[in-house]
Amino acid sequence: MTPGQRITKLRKEKDLQQKEVAEAIGMNRIILNRIELGKRPLRDDEAVALADYFHVTTDYLLKGKVSEQNHSSRGVRIPVLGRVVAGIPIEAVEEILDYEEITPELAATGEFFALKIRGHSMEPRMMEGDVVIVRKQEDVESGDVAIVLVNGNEATVKRVKKQEEGITLIATNTSVYEPHFYSNKEIKTLPVQILGKVVELRGKF
């Protein structure tokens, strides 16, 4: 059985549609469909997110190995921040609202923090009050959702589209929030700084 077939099996056992799973882990549904069909390999970070979502180990997803340790292993706590601003290291931010747990497997892939969504620019996918899990990194792939700091102001959550001339920050709620393009010059002078990649969305009720 391939990783894609195991994902399909887990999804159908829980009576979930591809769209539901993809939205929950911040993945494009078409990409998930290609992975399930075996037309695209499953990346390590995607395996971690899917394993966390389905409460299985990455070893099971990738190799079919069942481990009893997964349910007894303790999660790793990371802080939920209310805001991220320029000039203050994330570990020094005092506005810690709560803590979230991530799996040891995910924690092993980098340094993480969580951020509480403010505003409505990423609705309906990310609602105000939801929490995103973020891996600290200075760059992302085009199409990724990232935490971005513009002009030294408070960080925002946006999808990043890369172009030769610069980058465009795109909100999900495009009926209210228009995409904003920043030239390569503006990226350096403003500056426009990527703080991390959103790897998971946790909705709050």
Description of the molecule:
With about 200 residues, the chain is of the alpha+beta class. The chain folds into two domains: about 60 residues, 434 Repressor (Amino-terminal Domain) (Orthogonal Bundle), CATH 1.10.260.40; about 130 residues, Ribbon (Umud Fragment, subunit A), CATH 2.10.109.10. It has eight helices and nine strands. It has a nine-stranded mixed beta sheet with strand order 2-1-3-4-9-5-6-7-8.
The overall number of domains is: 2
Distance between the termini: 37 Å
Q: Can you list the strand order of the major beta sheet?
A: 2-1-3-4-9-5-6-7-8
Secondary-structure-derived class: alpha+beta
What is the correct CATH architecture of the largest domain?
Ribbon
Topology order in helix (H) and strand (E) letters: HHHHHHEEHEEEEEEHE
How much is the radius of gyration in Å?
A: 18 Å
Present the secondary structure layout:
Layout: H1 3-13, H2 18-25, H3 29-36, H4 44-54, H5 58-63, H6 69-72, E1 76-81, E2 96-102, H7 104-107, E3 112-116, E4 131-136, E5 145-150, E6 156-163, E7 166-170, E8 180-183, H8 184-189, E9 192-202
Parallel strand pairs: 1-3
Antiparallel strand pairs: 1-2, 3-4, 4-9, 5-6, 5-9, 6-7, 7-8
